[in-house]
Fold this protein.
Amino acid sequence: MSTPSGFGLAGIIGMPVVHSRSPVIHNFWLNAHGIRGAYVPLAVAPERLKAALPGLVALGFRGCNVTMPHKQTAIALLDRVNETARRIGAVNTIVVDADGTLSGFNNDGNGFVQSLRDALPAGARTPGQSLCSAPAVPHGLWLWRCWRMARGRSGSPTEPRKRRRRLPRSSVPR
């Protein structure tokens, strides 16, 4: 949502948010690029979230980032939630649309997957090939599930899986 003066107001909503570096980072770049606006911390207790979100519209915010503990709770309070956020079960970005409605998104997966791609060792085609060879296999499998979900595939353990051909026990190197 745009204000008549062209000044943009955005923030980070959570509890607590005093530790967040987001306001410092975003305000630095707003100033560096000559963009009229401000990014502010919005400390909102969980029991006040339902009242706070419509306040974004009333105060002329263009949107906000969402942090803990509101990422999952906010979904039910928004007018629209994109498919990625719905599949993940959490929002991390709320946009105030021109008509005053609130739309939720989750961009965590995009940055997460890109960081995995950037860190792939030479020859690996997917993040799972390097993550699952790490000592922390359970963590690698969780990351693999996130990567699959970000690519539009179910990461659900109940998803039917293709049967894989197992190697004979004697051919497994020891």
